[in-house]
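thread from #wetlab-drylab

HS: before we spend reagent money on co-crystallization trials with NAP, can we at least see a predicted complex? here's what I'd submit
DV: go for it
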Amino acid sequence: MDELPEAIRFLHETEMGLGTWAWGDRMVWNYGKGYSDADIDEAFRVSVEGGITFMDSAEVYGNGRSERLLGQFIKKSEKPILTATKFFPMPWRWTKNTVVNALKASLERLELKAVDLYQIHWPSPLVPIETYAEGLALLQKAGLTRAVGVSNYDQIQMQRAYTVLAKYDIPLASNQVEYHLLNRKIEKNGLLARCQELNIRLIAYSPLAMGLLTGKYTPETPPPGVRGGKYATSLKNIQPLLKLMVEIGQDWGGKTPAQIALNWCICKGTLPIPGAKNARQAEMNAGAIGWRLTPEQVKALDTASDSFSK
Ligand SMILES: NC(=O)c1ccc[n+]([C@@H]2O[C@H](COP(=O)([O-])OP(=O)(O)OC[C@H]3O[C@@H](n4cnc5c(N)ncnc54)[C@H](OP(=O)(O)O)[C@@H]3O)[C@@H](O)[C@H]2O)c1
């Protein structure tokens, strides 16, 4: 870790973060039904108490509400918080300056002078990778973000962003992609290995497969809304995997499937950012750090997920 550039070291020292997509989102997460701002406030507080200080937001989450709530919680927090947010490639954003202006608007909502990590949320089908990477470089040079990253970039797109930033001596700090026991594409297509070679921190999003890997949903009681449709087949297939996760959890004094799922991501060298809607979920998820599954347990989980994981 000594040879890592100072600007990105914090990411490599972070075991796990907290995802804030559900904080204000009604379309996927039913914000306002079953959890309120007070619950989210508690989720933040309990996470920080449990040692989770890296928070991942985005300008589009809840149309800015996630950033606003996060900003309010940060102000009250006694511990320093590492803040990450994201730029969305809206079709009218054609220039590098749109990246700069978008972060300035995020900083207003967050009530911060700078963030720790600013990420391009998705590659644009219209704008070259290089244009937004130039925007990231401007922001880091201006001190509006400590480090810069991308999200949902494949190997080629990631390499292109890396090359632009390298011209300015700026490391590409991270690539945030979907990764969990039901989706191991990045292990199979080489993206994870490439990130590790380049010291790019792989941030694993939806590490609980949007709640499926907690074991609380079954084929008879699927998750509500769009998640139910997305995971209808998986729910049948994953029952033996969930059984194994319970058994492995028992070897660790009663760790839950959620904690096993998150620890598995950490053991693979990634930084998971599970979402939490309330104190109970946040507390459980924080119990996934500070210990490691054995290599044999990781292998057993790999084998159990091999037949149906992507
Ligand atoms: N870059 C991107 O394109 C992208 C895409 C997706 C997500 N993300 C990031 O990744 C973060 C996490 O992903 P995610 O929110 O999609 O999915 P996730 O972390 O896999 O699942 C989160 C959901 O699972 C349930 N849950 C969490 N902990 C639980 C526990 N201990 N016990 C029981 N249920 C629990 C909650 O929903 P219920 O209670 O409703 O089940 C919670 O909202 C997001 O918040 C966001 O920051 C980024």
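DV: The chain has a mean pLDDT of 96.
HS: ok that's useful, forwarding to the group
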